[in-house]
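Example (one chain per record):
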Amino acid sequence: MLLVIDHQVKLLPSIDDGEQVLANAARLVEAAWLLNIPIVATEQTPEKIGPLTKDIRRYCSRILSKVHFDACADGAIDIIGHDQARKQIVISGCEAHVCVLQTAISLMRAGFSVWIVTSATGSHSQTDRALAFERLRGLGATLVSLEMVLFEWLRRSDHPKFRELLQTIKSHRSRVIPDVQKH
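Predicted structure:
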């Protein structure tokens, strides 16, 4: 299952490298949708922070409006369910050190395996983002890249959706590689 946390219109401009975080989240959501992986999203006080971006919203099967930073306090676990076949939650979201962190901790306490897609998760500062990832790893979350998730979802090169997702992967690489070469 994919849980997308607070990729909202008014929040993303304050996220460090927010355009890239959103682009990666949109690729992740589209891939999950193509592979029939359930997608649940959250919106933190949407009347103040705005709705999810349309690139995310259009693929979501459920959207939870919340006031708590921890989405589980507003019913995320009830929406996700306790289906024994779906014990792994892949998370993308904002902000890493607040809503993503608190939600991931609650999900792990509830027995879920949590994977954080780091390239599709952001904070207002790199320091807070890095500290959140360090803490999450220490608590047992698995930190992954977008490509790691996509290839693990596919599992095989003869998957019927491989060609479609290969375009997503190539698109991701075309945006990432120039940034790496600059440094």
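Caption: The radius of gyration is 15 Å.
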